[in-house]
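[step 3/7] fold_predict: job queued, chain A
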Amino acid sequence: MITVSLCMIVKNEEDVIGRCLSSVASAVDEIIIVDTGSTDRTKEIAGSFVQRIYDFEWIDDFAAARNYAFGLATKDYILWLDADDVIQRDQLAAFVSLKETLDPSVDSVTMAYHLAFDEFGNVTSSVRRNRLVKRSNNFRWIGAVHEYLEVWGQIYNSDIAVTHSSLRHDSDRNINIYERRLAAGEQFSPRDLYYYANELLDHSKPEMATRYYEQFLATGKGWIEDNISACGKLADCYHQLGNEQLEFESALRSFRYDRPRPEFCCRLGYHFLNKQEFQTAIFWYNLATLFEPSEQQMGFRNEACSTWLPHLQLCLCYDRIGEYKLAYLHNERARRYRPKDRSILHNKSYLEGVLKNSESIGRGEAYDGK
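[step 4/7] structure written:
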């Protein structure tokens, strides 16, 4: 059985670090905590799990801090978590099983990272991360902000998930680091251009964000998942700026990099639905339901766009053109994912009435929740 070092960098995480460590401590063989300047009870709480906490002077560089933590590990593999992450009990059991069975020739194990959930507990946003890596390979973190772990070799894509459960977030931290780097005259890498544009969009600066997304795409050196995401982000920017044509063109632009993803199919379906071009909308929503993600896909996923959402919108489209049986069929498919959703239950009741007596109830009653 392999041994595992858990490596974490922390700062002022008193609200969450105990929860994180409690969720995983029993399954790892060593815990490395590197503190980058806490002024709250973070060290005190972490001290109940480890004998020693290491200090690292903060230099506006997340990769440097993570690499320092990795350098302190002594076990076969390194697991990394953030303080506001947790491993749920069922996932912890799967992790222990993985430790017992993992082929030591594996260089990195990817795990799903669940970022957001709906009111029914369904995952709405997720991404896959290289989460457990062989220590002897000396893999390095790269990037001062939005750092990534550069890995190679034999990759195992596990079914294990880590849950992000943030209670608070310093929304200005990353953009301030980027702006200090710009002020110092630093030349941004393509990855920096992309993530700085993301920060600008998150800070309600869509016009400025479009310039950096365009600079990023123009380099031709972006990771394919970032290229695809940038097209969606550009569409978001142009939506905020009220430019419907460029919003539409940005969505289509994503097809340069890969087959149509569900997120873009749903975006295009909504575009044509708003124009009451229902058959075209149906085409795009149907396409969204056919997408099967590859295990190699590491980018962010909006789970709704490949599960219940296109079916709910297909229900609406088919209702509008009087195809009530198809409307009911897709509403039922949406209900499999969200059995207690009020809009879906409304559609079920409405369409059952229509199918019993289609002449007594007019068109246009299906509801998409908006």
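[step 5/7] annotate
The chain has a mean pLDDT of 94.
Residues 27 and 100 are 11 Å apart (CA to CA).
exit 0
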